[in-house]
Write a structure and sequence with these properties.
By secondary structure, the chain is α+β, with helices and mostly antiparallel strands. About 15% of the residues lie in helices and about 35% in strands. The protein has a domain at about 1-15 and about 40-75. It has helices spanning about 40-45, 65-70; strands at about 1-5, 10-15, 25, 30-35, 50-55, 65, 70-75. Strand 3 and strand 4 (about 30-35) form a beta hairpin. The longest helix has 7 residues, at about 40-45.
Length: about 80
């Protein structure tokens, strides 16, 4: 896991994905619930356009577009 150099918490990646997703609708025709969570992770990872836009620490909020600037890998 990538850990924050500042506080030691897990560092996450932010990804922008351009794809279509199915949502259930409420009685007013507005989005109410995502319909297919089981394949969402696969769609994001396999998308050729998915690139990490930024990295951030879940605890202290430190962020950077270069992972190795804010984090170190620990098994």
């Amino acid at each position: 896991m990538w850990k924050c150099k500042e506080c030691g918490s897990e560092v996450m990646g932010i990804v922008e994905v351009n794809d279509l997703f199915d949502f259930k609708l409420d009685k007013d025709g507005k989005l109410s619930k995502y319909d297919s969570f089981w394949w969402l992770e696969e769609v994001i990872i396999e998308s050729s356009e998915s690139e990490v836009e930024n990295y951030y620490c879940k605890s202290c909020g430190k962020s950077d577009d270069d992972l190795e600037e804010i984090a170190v890998w620990e098994d």
